[in-house]
Amino acid sequence: MSGNILEVAGVTKVFGGLTAVNDVTMNIPDRSIVSVIGPNGAGKTTFFNMITGIYEPTKGTIRLDGRELVGLRPDQVTEAGIARTFQNIRLFSTMTSEENIMVGRHSRLKSGFLDAVLRTKKFHDGEQEARDAARIMLDFVGLGKWRNELATNLPYGDQRKLEIARALATTPKLILLDEPAAGMNPRETEDLKALIRRVRDELGVTVCLIEHDMRLVMTLSEHITVLDYGSLIAEGKPHQVRNDPRVMEAYLGRGAAAGDYGKEERPHA
Ligand SMILES: Nc1ncnc2c1ncn2[C@@H]1O[C@H](COP(=O)(O)OP(=O)(O)OP(=O)(O)O)[C@@H](O)[C@H]1O
Predict the structure, then answer these.
(1) Is 193 in the pocket of ligand 1 (CB under 6 A)?
(2) Burial letters for 144-156: b for 16+ Cβ neighbours within 10 Å, e otherwise?
(3) What is the residue-wise DSSP string for 64-113?
(4) What is the DSSP letter of 222?
(5) The pLDDT of residue 92 is above 80
(6) Sign of CA dihedral 173, 174, 177, 181
(7) Closest ligand 1 atom to the C-alpha of 87?
(8) Which residue minimizes the CA distance to atom 30 of ligand 1?
(9) C-beta separation of 175 from 207 below 8 A
(10) If you take atom 26 of ligand 1, which residue's CA is the nearest one?
(11) CATH no. for 82-171
(12) Which residue has its alpha carbon closest to ligand 1 atom 6?
C-alpha cells in the first residue's frame, strides 16, 4: 500500500481546442485534508468532474485504493467510494432534510425496482436502513432538529451542511467538496471548518476541497495543489504555497489583492 487513497497520474482534459486540465499528477494521502486552489477557470471543477466520472479524461489514470476509475460512470464512482458536493446548492427543495439524505443513500440500497413495486420485506428493510442512516448523518452534522423541515427552509449554511451529510450517507472513503464555504458568513465558515475536521477525525473520511476562501484553505489543509490554466504550478504545505512566487503571480496577474487572493471574486455575504 502506498498510503494514498487517491492517485491521479498525468490527467488531461481537452474540450475542443481548450486544454482545461493539462497533465496533472496528484496523490491524496489516506485520511488527509487537502485542497485544490487556483484562479477562476484554472481547471479545478473539471479536475473534480474527471475524478467523479462526469468527464472521461483525454489522458491519464485515476486510482482509488489501487482501483482504476477511468471509464466508470458517476454512480459507479460513488459506489467505489467517492462522494462530492457541488459549487451551487443542489438540494431537492420539495423534500425534507431527511428525504434529501435518503436520496443520497440510494446507491447503497440493495433492494431493486421489483422490490420497490412489490413492497417486499427487503424493500422495507432497505427503506428503514436508509432512514436510520439519514438520522445518524443529520445528527452528525448538527441538523437533527431540521429532520422534517423542507430543505429550502433551512438557513444557507445549514443547507450546505445538509449537502455534506447527503454525500457522507453514501459511506465514502473520499469526499470532494467544491467551494463549500462559498457565500458563507465568517461564523458559518468557522462551523464548516470544525465539521470538515470531524469528518476526517471521527469518520475517517479523506477530504479534498476546492476553495477560494484562503483563510479557510490555509488553516485547514495539510497539503495544497495549485492549478493555473489547467497546469499544476505549485504544491506543498500551506506556508510553502502561500510564499510561492508562481502562486502570487497567478493570482496577482488577474488583479487580486495579495494575502487574500481570489476572495474578491465571490459575492460575500
Ligand atoms: N464542458 C465544457 N466544455 C468546454 N469548456 C469547458 C467545459 N467545462 C469547463 N470548460 C472550460 O475549462 C476551463 C476550466 O474550467 P473549470 O470550471 O474547471 O475551472 P475552475 O478552476 O473550476 O473555475 P472556477 O473557480 O471559476 O469554478 C475554463 O476555461 C472553462 O470555460
Answers:
(1) no
(2) eebbeebbeebee
(3) ETTEE-TT--HHHHHHHTEEEE-SS----TTSBHHHHHHHHHGGG----H
(4) S
(5) yes
(6) positive
(7) 27
(8) 41
(9) yes
(10) 40
(11) 3.40.50.300
(12) 15
Q: Quote the ligand 1 centre to 14 CA distance (angstroms).
A: 11
Residue 268's pLDDT is 38
Three-class DSSP category at 136: helix
Every domain of the chain and the residues it spans: 1-81+174-180+205-269, 82-171
pLDDT digits (tens, 9 = 90+) for 11-35: 999 999 999 999 999 999 999 999 9
Name the pTM for this structure: 0.88
CA 264 to chain centre: 22
Complex prediction ipTM: 0.96
41 CA → ligand 1 middle, Å? 5
In this prediction, residues 68-96 reach a mean pLDDT of 93
Answer yes or no: is the C-beta of 88 below 6 A from any ligand 1 atom.
no
How confident is the model at residue 257, as a pLDDT? Answer: 42
**Does the fold of domain 82-171 match that of domain 1-81+174-180+205-269?**
yes
Mean pLDDT across 64-78: 96
Residue with cell 473534480: 48
Q: Report which of 165, 171, 172, 163 is spatially closest to residue 5, judged by C-alpha positions.
A: 172
Going by pLDDT thresholds of 50, 70 and 90, the confidence category of residue 111 is low
Query: Does 42 contact ligand 1 (Cβ within 6 A)?
Result: yes
Q: What is the pLDDT of residues 136-178, one digit of tens each?
A: 999 999 999 999 999 999 999 999 999 999 999 999 999 999 9
Residue 147 amino acid letter: R
CATH number of 1-81+174-180+205-269: 3.40.50.300
CB atoms within 10 A of CB 18: 12
